Amino acid sequence: MVVGAVVHFMREKILVIDDDEKITSMLRRSLAFEGYTVFTANHGMDGLKQILENEPDAVILDVMMPQLDGWEVVRRIREGGSDVPVLMLTAKDEISDRVKGLDMGADDYLVKPFALEEPLARVRVLLRRKSSEKQERPANKLQYQDVFMDLDTREVFRGGQLIELTTKEFDLLHLFLQNPKRVLSRDVIMEKIWGYDYSGESNVLEVYIAPLRQKTEEHGHKRIIQTVRGAGYVLRGES
User: Fold this and answer.
1) What pLDDT, in 10s, does the model give residues 179-217?
2) Between helices 95-104 and 70-79, what is the axis angle to 10°?
């Protein structure tokens, strides 16, 4: 073990999105030394893809990037329903730019140039805040990516838009949200939703899966209920 390194048993994942290779290289080495698992992206579109694939615990995001700037990236992150903490980096020191980043959904703002210890300290603060909020979050709320379920009101949202579900569709989605990325066999789903003694139509599960998919994929959303051929179904975003 490297002397002086901070050991994180859960190895929180940090995504650095910046088109400046010197910045990404410096932050990658420093964060890794602190014990984090680090991913990097050099433009906004790749960063958004990695957020879906790697589900980071925090994002360090540069503002000034080609094609897709940091403001648009953080806007899309929040529009997609993710609450991942975002620390924005920028060479701009205008108050209006800081306000714009925070209004878009950033959690903190750091102006370049900066001492290396400062982004590391701010990441620690963001992670502690997220951990505290997670502990306080009621167990009657479930979320996966941009799908949010409130068990008290029996409401489901995707990307902030309400989805109207029947009782069985709600129960099915509830089961998937309780087991994200876990392949559920047809028998397990039938047992959990319809019970041991179900003796109705053999294709009843498929009859309910189809409209549930249609409703969760409205407004251009990608499929999240995937078919695993010969095994069952899984709640997993498309890669």
Assistant:
1) 988 899 888 898 888 875 555 556 888 889 999 999 999
2) 20
The phi-psi region of residue 80 (left if phi > 0; otherwise alpha if psi is between -120 and 50; otherwise beta) is: alpha
- Over residues 87-116, the pLDDT tens digits come to 998 876 667 767 777 777 888 888 888 888
Taking residue 10's Cβ as centre, other Cβ atoms within 10 Å add up to 9
Q: Which residues, listed in sequence order, are joined to residue 143 by a DSSP beta bridge?
A: 148
Q: Alpha-carbon distance 161 to 113, whole Å?
A: 40
> How far is it, in rounded angstroms, from Cα 31 to Cα 62?
16
State residue 148 phi and psi, 5-degree precision.
-125, 135
Q: Tell me which residue of 79, 78, 207, 174 sits closest to 88, measured CA to CA.
A: 78
Segment 39-63 mean pLDDT: 91
Average pLDDT, the chain: 84
